[in-house]
Design goal:
The chain is an alpha/beta fold and 297 residues long. It has three domains: 83 residues, Winged helix-like DNA-binding domain superfamily/Winged helix DNA-binding domain (Arc Repressor Mutant, subunit A); 85 residues, D-Maltodextrin-Binding Protein, domain 2 (3-Layer(aba) Sandwich), CATH 3.40.190; 106 residues, D-Maltodextrin-Binding Protein, domain 2. Helices cover 42% and strands 25% of the residues. Strands 3, 4, 5, 6, 7, 8, 9, 10, 11 and 12 form a ten-stranded mixed sheet that branches. It has a two-stranded antiparallel ribbon with strand order 1-2. The protein is elongated, with a radius of gyration of 27 Å. Keywords: DNA-binding, Transcription, Transcription regulation. Pfam families: HTH_1, LysR_substrate.
Length: 297
Amino acid sequence: MELRQLEYLVAVVEEASFTRAAARLHVTQPGVSSQIRQLERELGQRLLDRSGRTVRPTEVGATVLEYARSALSSVAGARLAVDEYAGLLRGHVAVGTVTLASTLDLPGLLASFHRRHPAVEISLRESSSDELAEALTASRLDAAVLAPAYTSPPGVELQAIADEPLVAAVSRDDPLAVAGRDRLALSELADRALITFTHSTGTRGDIDAACVAAGFRPRIAFEASDPGVLARLAAHGMGVAILPAPIARDHPEELHVLFTDPVIRGRLALAWRSAGTESPAATAFLAHARAALRTPV
């Protein structure tokens, strides 16, 4: 009995197909079938029922399957222990982010972790802050960059990594720019068409709340998750964009920037499960991210 045969058995049962199992294992379908038949001959029992449209384990096959999974798990654990002893980390890290995190060098963070731990696979998904928090608590993500609410989601810990003002940005021929103003009361935007983020970014909630507190409901003309799109729309005179200050300042020839009173702040946080991560790779990534991402002063 070989570990390869047990791995093939588990894959065939989970995929309910020799063909899909072969694709998953990156081997040929006849090779999978041959190894399973060899295992059945060695044990003297049929492990798989091939009579239907899908492959299913026989009664004895289901029993063997439990031991096969246990054996494969033990071998993986032994390899991980040896890798850790040798200083080589393996595994997979799932990271999430809101679009607004483009103001951070998240690709640079992932790249620096990859250079340090090249055997660790990294995946990245983009979603709303609420969905990212839910994915964290459900263990579908190991860490996420999100726009936090005023209280931490249940089961999630946060480390602030960005806290910067959002500004109003208008085209250079807008009356606010022509007047040379650099500040305005937020209430002055009550009758203006606003260009701002979608609700998926999280920061949109802060913008809406600030407008309501100033006595009006914002009149949203355009919304997008990419701050660069918002900046270009404002540069073309389509309205007043509410943007992170660094993004607005990246367009000095096209945009005039005004600070609002009160100031709306754009906040980002690194989030992870309060109960801790479930793998050495995820633990190492979280430590790397917490050290690398800047904390606002």
